[in-house]
């Protein structure tokens, strides 16, 4: 009963018929037929505190025209919702049960004709999202233009050690922080996600500087190396923040000047351009880092529901975060252990990873598209065997596409090296190994999406061992060493596919 109906019931029906609805007449009648206040039942409007209603309003702008609960489930999973979160936060057995209730409360989809503006807007937004994700690869490469100028200041050996050490720490810290933030976002705890990203980024600066001091004390390189490592951590954390909040344009605008000046120094040379390259890079990294921190600071919503302490929110995620951290360490080891010995003097081997890095945005884009395509497959097939076959056909096509993209870039690179007289057999083999890694990382994205971090860590460790052990026993030269690495990557590709067998073909994972 609302407040208005409670007051109305306190007025006899006979009087209400005579009053005709006038405000003054109603006030008069109320005074004439007044009853003690203790006898009046007044109920305030009910304010919904159901978290499902909040979730419905959160997903409605993203999926306002869902045609079934499968689409809702796919969106919830992409936002970080897990079966455990569905049980703890909402009281449902799994994400699919939660999606059914969300879909029911959203109401039936309204009919939309193909010519409605909203469809064109959605299509445009989809293209923008694709371009945004595809930009990730080039964005990862932009800071490398400053390496020649930094090299002249710290020395080659110190630079290599610093790059590997800072890259590993940044890989682990940024990956773990991003995973935890996406979990908080999936639970509807946006402010917790922002705080986590903000403070992990702030912590990255002294951690990078401390690691730089340790490397300088052990290997030399001076204060410039320690500053470079802290800057590398700052850029990795800045890119994590801006990618998380879909602000890749800010990242590009910050670093393009550094890339241009660095490339100019590489071609022209000279102490003036060297100092300019370093200065512009420092300013670009500082700007990107500031933009990233700004993205985490949002105006507080006074009506937003309170969130539990961050430590309490992260406690149930400890096992997953340990897995993500291990995955980051294993990934860094898989890439750096093979490249590090050649960074000092073999250019064709040292830059063999460039096609892979440039195409990582493409791999990420295809991995993101897999889940929606597979949900759509559940509506097209009727038999479980057909679904399993369709999933594996889709995976096969996507792996081939993820191999094709870096292959094109690799051919351009190899032709350039050949024209410059720098190409060797070992360089070509190492480039092929990194092209194969693009397909492996596509499968790794799928395994990570199913939470199989243990399998990822174990199989990557096996791949590293399969490369290092025979190479050490055979005292392998560059050609044999890179060939062994290519073999270990091909084995890893098969192991990743085997890890998908128990989970990827089960339709319940896409409900």
Order of helices and strands: HHHHHHHHHHHHHHHHHHHHHHH
Number of domains: 4
- How far apart are the termini? 39 Å
DSSP strand (E) fraction? under 5%
Overall geometry = globular
Biggest sheet statistics = none
Radius of gyration: 29 Å
How many E strands? 0
Task: Please mark out the parts with pLDDT under 50 across 5 or more consecutive residues, or reply none.
Answer: 1-48, 110-119
Structural class estimated from helices and strands: mainly alpha
Helix proportion:
over 70%
Helical element count? Answer: 23
How would you summarize this macromolecular structure in one to three sentences?
With 511 residues, the protein is mostly helical.
Tell me about this structure:
The chain has 511 residues and is an all-alpha fold. It has four domains: 3-39, no CATH class; 51-106, no CATH class; 137-299, no CATH class; 334-511, no CATH class. Helices cover 77% and strands 0% of the residues. The protein is built from 23 helices and no strands. The chain has helices at 3-9, 13-19, 23-32, 51-59, 69-78, 83-90, 95-106, 117-134, 136-141, 147-154, 156-186, 190-219, 222-244, 248-268, 271-296, 310-314, 318-339, 347-350, 354-380, 384-419, 425-449, 453-474, 478-504. Helix 11 (156-186) packs antiparallel against helix 17 (318-339) and helix 12 (190-219) packs antiparallel against helix 13 (222-244). The longest helix is centred in the last third of the chain and has 36 residues, at 384-419. 38% of the residues are buried.
